[in-house]
Amino acid sequence: MERYDLIVIGAGPAGLSAAIEAAKNGARAAVFDENERPGGQLFKQIHKFFGSKEHKAKIRGFKIGNDLLKEAGEWGVKVVLNATVIGLYPEKEITVRIGEKILHYKGDSVLIATGASENMVTFEGWTKPGVIGAGAAQTMMNLHHIKPGNKVLMLGSGNVGLVVSYQLMQAGCKVVAVVDAAPRIGGYGVHAAKLARCGVPFYLSHTIVRAAGTEAVEGVTIAQVDESFRFVPETEKTFEVDTVCVAVGLSPMSQLLKQAGCRMKDTPGGLIPDCDEYGATSVPGIFAAGDVAGIEEASSAMIEGRISGAMIAGYLGYLEEKAAHTRVEELEKALESLRKGMFAPENRGKFMKKTEEGIDTSVSLLEHGFLADNEVEKYPGVIRKAGTHPVIECTQNIPCNPCQDACPKGCISIGSNITSLPVVDGTAECIGCGMCVASCSGQAIFLVEEKCEDGYGTVTLPYEFLPLPAAGQKGIALGRDGTRICEAEVVKVRSAQAFDHTSLLTMKVPSDMVMKARFFKAV
Fold first, then answer.
1. pLDDT tens, 169-225?
2. Global pTM?
3. Whether the predicted pLDDT of 54 surpasses 80
4. In this structure, are residues 380 and 423 in contact, taking their beta carbons and an 8 Å threshold?
5. CB 106 within 8 A of CB 3
6. Percentage of residues in the chain with pLDDT exceeding 70?
7. What is the distance between the alpha carbons of residues 440 and 436, in angstroms, rounded to a whole number?
């Protein structure tokens, strides 16, 4: 029986981060994962992360995954793939199926980082081919390069539903609608806004009645629901689709922890282990980190893994207690900053009527996915001035600040509070480099020049679709709600390594449209 100082079950962001942290301090660590590729969800995440530099902000998920794997290799972490852990026992022994063999391993400590599985809702026709989880769609697109469908309806407006909807469009699918039984959008407003300006409608307080089709999905019918989530008569709407994506939350995969005799607790988010702040369970030497201990973003999971890894190094005697707590305090500060703002754990499901700055929350954004034109200028990131200048339509207190560091001229400031709304300094000189536009994880920054020639101005926007339009190409400009507002002409398209696959498209529109035009559509 092979023995390790630390056995980690799950090679996702939390598991790899914990193994690296422990290995840095001298522990011999092994990571087991049932998949054929390590990295967990990271390699499906082609979008840029939120947070700050220490949280891997503005870096795409798959790049973070590659960085973690490289770091794990540098510190001698053994990663065993296609290895399904089928048993975990209080003595910190595991049984693993690898191929046709059942093998036994012993650890002086064990960290469970098995993540979470997708939830599903039932409706008439929910078992038909074409009804899939949003995570499955993401796997098909981003790992296997398979288009999940042609016309897709997304059920769920949390961050997963919003992000995957956008990625479906990038893959060439038409997203006919985003539907949610809740009365307000659950994910970040910036994610919803980039869908809305592409013409995707939102149906809040609606859910699926049935999926139609003989051998596979051919259509879907939705209906409005009342406050008790009962269908409202005569509100049905039918869409012709071949795919229904379901993004209605995740459930922690905590079965191994229960098997090991760890004390568990039932929460609204699922059955999770009863852990202390460092991830230690009720069974000495068994720890948990990441979604298995409570659903959060991957950025939080990585920090949780580092915290558990540091404490495990201390538990094993590789790190003095004082040094372990010093390291954990440093990591906890980073984690705490991610748990602030409108989307902090204690604010989940709440309607925040005002921002931290005292500005009224946009009801239009929450109910329709876009800012109303008459409310944009009340936010500190939106200014009017001569010449080129940034316009930041970031209106929620989200933990994110890459735009502050991106501007070489200091046009943008957020301050020490990472959840503060970005402020544009109208006295600073914008050189039009576009680094702020490319760095924004929410694609909420635009460069505006209100007058480039008589009667016309330009709008520079983030563009992540292929094929790229060419300079001189004519089309139409879409407003924040995705409707046509005027004719537009592409002036230039900039792509650079520093932009990390976000191209900057500059279009010429009438001067009175520069504060409204937010997307270019070729005709």
1. 999 999 999 999 999 999 999 999 999 999 999 999 999 999 999 999 999 999 999
2. 0.95
3. no
4. yes
5. yes
6. 100
7. 6
Secondary element (H or E) of residue 243: strand 243-246
What one-letter code names the amino acid at 273? P
Note every long-range contact of 142-150, with CB atoms under 8 Å and residues 24 or more positions apart, other chains counting: 142/43, 142/44, 142/45, 142/46, 142/62, 142/167, 143/37, 143/43, 143/44, 147/171, 147/172, 147/173, 148/173, 148/243, 148/245, 149/173, 149/241, 149/242, 149/243, 150/174, 150/242, 150/243
Residue 119, φ and ψ in degrees, nearest 5: -80, 160
Task: Label each residue of 382-426 as H, E or C.
Answer: CCCCCCEEEEECCCCCCCECHHHHHCCCCCEECCCCCCCCCEECC
Residue range 361-393, pLDDT digits in tens:
999 999 999 999 999 999 999 999 999 999 999
pLDDT at 57: 86
Average pLDDT, stretch 237-247? 98
Task: Label the pairing between strands 78-80 and 445-453.
Answer: unpaired
pLDDT for residue 394: 96
Q: Is 515 contained in some domain? A: yes
Instruction: Note if the bond before 467 is cis, omega within 30 degrees.
Output: yes
Sheet of 445-453, strands arranged across: 388-392, 445-453, 456-463, 503-510, 484-494, 474-478, 519-522
- For residue 162, give the amino acid letter: L
3 state DSSP class of 43: helix
Q: Is residue 363 part of a domain?
A: no
Same domain, 459 and 495: yes
C-beta of residue 284 within 8 angstroms of C-beta of residue 76: no
Would you say residue 473 lies in a domain? yes
Query: Quick one: average pLDDT of 321-330?
Result: 93
Kindly report which listed range (24-33, 58-67, 169-178) carries the lowest average pLDDT score: 58-67
Return d(Cα 213, Cα 235) in angstroms, integer.
Answer: 21
- The gap from C-alpha 266 to its chain's centroid, in whole angstroms, comes to 25
In three-state secondary structure terms, 120 is: coil
Could you tell me which of 411, 467, 416, 443 has the C-alpha nearest to residue 519?
443
In terms of domains, do 112 and 124 share one?
no
CA 312 to chain centre: 28
State the residue range of the domain holding 257: 2-117+251-338
